[in-house]
Write a structure and sequence with these properties.
This protein is an alpha/beta fold. 38% of the residues lie in helices and 20% in strands. It has helices at residues 2-25, 51-64, 77-85, 100-105, 138-146, 155-160, 181-193, 195-200, 218-226, 237-242, 262-269, 308-322, 339-349, and strands at residues 40-46, 68-74, 91-94, 112-127, 135-136, 172-176, 213-215, 231-236, 246-247, 249-251, 257-258, 294-302, 304-305, 353-354, 357-358. Strands 1, 2, 3, 4, 6, 7, 8, 9 and 12 form a nine-stranded mixed beta sheet that branches. A three-stranded mixed beta sheet has the order 5-10-11. Strands 13-14-15 form a three-stranded mixed beta sheet. It is elongated. The termini are far apart.
Length: 361
Amino acid sequence: MGSFRSTTRAMVVGMAFALLAMACGSTSTAGTAAVDVGKGALTGAGSTFDNPLFSKAFFDYTAKYPDVTVNYQSVGSGAGIQQFIKKTVDFGATDVPMASADITSAGGPDTLTQIPVALGVVALAYNISGVTSLNLDADTLAGIFLGKIKKWNDPAIVALNSGTTLPSGNITVAHRSDGSGTSYIFTDYLSKVSSDWKSQVGVGKSVKWPVGVGASGNQAVAQAITSTEGSIGYVELAYAVQTQMHTAMLKNANGKFVAATDAGATAAAAQNTSVSATNFSIVNEPGDTTYPIAGFSWAILYTSYSDAQKGKAVAYLFKWLVTDGQSEGASLQYAPLPSSVQQLALTNLKLVKAGGSAVLS
């Protein structure tokens, strides 16, 4: 009888520890110690560049922590910043950090923190029947988007594509019509490689496009390209892959033609060893394997959340996203953040307070 009681007691104690371990696992970001990751229905808005990553990552995070849900609206970087300024969302997302005027409108630098969350490339997707490989360099790309190169069989393009038969049809340029961080990255590149582009158009989330048709969001630009013969446009790589579009090889700063890949983004990011919200450009960087149009994307968080549980949820969500959650982007053509950039993200996250107290230490 004594043996039976001892065995029963051991079973009960064992089950109790098992249940405790399960409970701890539901709130721990490491799986080894109980951590209150907060709870709440979070809302965010902004970058379409980030949307493929966010859609997958936020879904998987909620599966892991059911008390936290995320509703992200892929409305473009400019619109996301405006919603953040108006305090209608819990976080924003943009492919270029907020400018000083927007920071002032949001309440000043002490009221927010900007977190690098993604690293990706801007691909040049095209739709030319019968053409599965296309080489472009800085001059031809700038010429196309300036409207100076109008035909696919222009001598400048033909010279870069020996052995490829290019049609005589017109080139249709597709570009963003909304305020877009992807546009910023693209125009930042063109301004660095073309003096004509720099003087005539410049850099910005919204610019006056010399030619082409506009569409709102990466997804709409991708759709415009797939539905228009002879078109070319810039999109975050995931959209090109998902729609099975062809993408051009670009001649980089070292004179090598390279494909749009996450490895090319990693090579570009390695050239900037002091990334910050004021030193973030990685376009046209040197290196044989560097893809020339790459960039970071950023989440914008408030430094103070009155709702303690929601504030914790925001901080822990992005702590996971910039560390373990980086693996979510592997199948979507995003490159993992370099370790130094991850550390920057974690340092900036320590500024977030929930109910008056810092969430992370």
